[in-house]
């Protein structure tokens, strides 16, 4: 089989890249380890920056997001049993975010790919990438009961943190930066109305909590849990009890509980691989970097990587120029590191650190007090949350 771009991974990064390339008439094949319904079943991100929403519109998959996505002009910080609103729209000259789940983004992209007729090899095993330091890279895999050998011009590593692409790069050619946090997030999805109209991020003595949503009838909640905690330890009743204990009186009053549709624990880490290009192989999205979800940056960073990579590949084929390809890594990493900093800062501010001690808690209290009483500090938080300019 021959194609122009082989994309490894059918998560949001791979699907969005495939859609942008197909729109530009560039042949591409996606190789995905799981079944499509498994990919859709993973509950992850919930907040889209304006630039990500714009890119989905550009890719021709923004209609349902326009109809069902919920624009948010602010969010709240809860500490010392009181809530303080961060007026994102007022502090950033009108910018907002859109609450629209990653599952729905992925579904919209899968439907568009189906309609485009572009090929996706699902349930692909033994995926091997080779010769990406030459002009004739190849991808081989087993799918549909037979071995495929794909000859291509470029390989896009959109295969997430545990994928094969980054792992295929010689260790002396890559520099990895990592920080693992001493806790995880226990997430629960339920068909119950949200406790508030906007997201509520809580810093409490019992630990961090986040009240998010997918619609006005479906809520997504998170609790900070110990790094070695297991989802089997948490009945729905135990989850709702602990969430209630971390909320302010008004939210406690408004909380509606119900059976979980999904419950899982995600570890938190900051990670960046440098560089993001190795000959004809490019890393994008979680294959290249990971942020703790506190700042809602993971999916949005993936979208920006894909925007830059799609433009670079289109420029290569249409204008016979490799300027975009040659600057791809540096361009992405400038944005990635600013998002890494923000996500680390917001995570450090909002969570209980086992080794932080009383002094650490007092520092967090002082920073939160400063944050909600200084327009300059609130503006800095707001402009990072809505997404820095491209
Ligand atoms: P993905 O990991 O989504 O997709 C990679 C794809 O590659 C997968 O479908 C995988 O099956 C496939 N793959 C892997 N190895 C392969 C191989 N060898 N061959 C072929 N295919 C292979 N971000 C937020 O903004 N907010 C959140 O709340 C949030 N919560 C998260 C919770 C969890 C548990 C995780 C893991 C991530 C979370 N994220 C969150 C980040 C998440 O949304 C990612 O940023 C987003 O999924 C990135 O998309 P991709 O880069 O496509 O990677
Ligand atoms: C979510 O709705 O899943 C979500 C929202 C904001 C975050 C993290 C997760 O910061």
The name of the CATH superfamily of the domain at 5-46 and 102-177 and 270-346 reads FAD/NAD(P)-binding domain
Biggest β-sheet description = 8 strands, mixed
Distance between the termini: 36 Å
According to CATH, what is the topology of the domain at 5-46 and 102-177 and 270-346? FAD/NAD(P)-binding domain
The backbone outline, from C-alpha atoms, is globular
> According to CATH, what is the class of the domain at 5-46 and 102-177 and 270-346?
Alpha Beta
Q: In percent, how much strand structure appears in the residues?
A: 25-35%
- Strand line-up of the largest beta sheet: 6-5-14-15-16-13-17-20
What is the CATH architecture assignment of the domain at 5-46 and 102-177 and 270-346? Answer: 3-Layer(bba) Sandwich
Radius of gyration: 21 Å
Q: Write down the overall mean pLDDT.
A: 97
Total beta-strand segments: 20
Given the structure, what is the number of helices? 12
Indicate the structural class.
alpha+beta
**Uncertain residue ranges:** none
Question: Which ions, cofactors or small ligands are bound in this entry?
Answer: arabino-flavin-adenine dinucleotide, P-hydroxybenzoic acid
Q: Which percent range fits the helix content? A: 25-40%
């Amino acid at each position: 089989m021959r194609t122009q771009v082989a994309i490894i991974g059918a998560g949001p990064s791979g699907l969005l890249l495939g859609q942008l390339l197909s729109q530009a008439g560039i042949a591409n094949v996606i190789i995905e380890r799981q079944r499509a319904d498994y990919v859709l079943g993973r509950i992850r991100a919930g907040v889209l920056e304006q630039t990500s929403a714009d890119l989905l519109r550009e890719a021709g998959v923004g209609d349902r997001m326009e109809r069902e996505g919920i624009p948010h002009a602010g969010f709240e910080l809860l500490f010392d049993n009181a809530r303080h609103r961060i007026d994102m729209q007022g502090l950033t000259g009108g910018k907002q975010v859109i609450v629209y789940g990653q599952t729905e983004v992925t579904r919209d992209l899968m439907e568009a790919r189906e309609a485009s007729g572009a090929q996706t090899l699902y349930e692909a095993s033994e995926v091997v990438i080779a010769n990406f330091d030459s002009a004739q890279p190849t991808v081989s895999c087993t799918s549909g009961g037979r071995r495929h050998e794909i000859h291509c011009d470029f390989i896009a590593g959109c295969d997430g943190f545990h994928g094969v692409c980054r792992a295929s790069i010689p260790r002396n050619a890559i520099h990895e930066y990592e920080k693992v946090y001493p806790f995880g997030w226990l997430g629960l999805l339920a068909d119950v109305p949200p406790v508030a109209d906007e997201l509520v991020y809580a810093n409490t003595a019992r630990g961090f909590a986040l009240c998010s949503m997918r619609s006005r009838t479906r809520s997504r909640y998170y609790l900070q849990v110990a790094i070695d905690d297991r989802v089997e330890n948490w009945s729905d009743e135990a989850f709702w009890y602990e969430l209630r204990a971390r909320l302010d009186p008004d939210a406690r009053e408004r909380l509606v509980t119900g059976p979980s549709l999904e419950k899982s624990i995600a570890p938190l880490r900051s990670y960046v691989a440098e560089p993001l290009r190795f000959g004809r192989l490019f890393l994008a999205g979680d294959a290249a970097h990971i942020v703790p979800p506190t700042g809602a940056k993971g999916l949005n960073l993936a979208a920006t990587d894909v925007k830059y990579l799609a433009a670079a590949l289109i420029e290569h084929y249409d204008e016979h120029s490799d300027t975009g390809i040659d600057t791809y890594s540096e361009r992405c990493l400038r944005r990635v590191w600013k998002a890494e900093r923000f996500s680390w800062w917001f995570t450090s501010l909002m969570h209980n650190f086992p080794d932080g001690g009383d002094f650490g808690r007092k520092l967090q209290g002082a920073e939160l007090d400063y944050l909600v009483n200084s327009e300059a500090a609130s503006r800095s938080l707001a402009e990072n949350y809505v997404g820095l300019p491209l």
